[in-house]
Design goal:
Layout (H helix, E strand, L loop, with lengths): L6 E2 L20 E13 L10 H6 L6 E4 L5 H14 L3 H9 L2 E5 L2 H9 L5 E5 L2 H9 L4 E3 L8 E6 L1 E2 L5 H11 L2 H4 L1
Parallel strand pairs: 3-4, 3-5
Antiparallel strand pairs: 1-8, 2-5, 2-6, 2-7
Amino acid sequence: ASKTGLFAKSGVAADAVNVPGGWNNDTFVPFDYGYFAFVYDKNKLKNPPQSLKELVESDQNWRVIYQDPRTSTPGLGLLLWMQKVYGDNAPQAWQKLAKKTVTVTKGWSEAYGLFLKGESDLVLSYTTSPAYHILEEKKDNYAAANFSEGHYLQVEVAARTAASKQPELAQKFLQFMVSPAFQN
């Protein structure tokens, strides 16, 4: 996207950005990040998978919902995660996962809604999803499966267009997005 000429340099200093692994891009500004995880209900699933490989390869008949990588960033994240874990064997891993797949949704909201209705044992979401239920609903029965391979990171970014009629205002907004006032 940087090479298209559609975006201008952000004007935000790299040290203003706090992203795991660091950030070195003078066009796109990270304003949010999260780790993907498979979320489950602790009251319904007592022994969740301990790794992506266990989820895919286990004989357990877990019912799983995830998102389409063509229409959803979590779905794209899962595609990249599977590729990272399985490498050249990713196509075979997808075939194994397909046997446990209830449905593949267009987006996160649809997938998570189906999970909350009890349509699956696990849903692709974020490690922070259980915190929402605790803070907003006072429910502590949801958890993110902690995978031994780690969890794939998603970074959301913003940029200003090169054709902006108010480039200074756009740059100020990007700077605001990394400030404590915006982040907290």
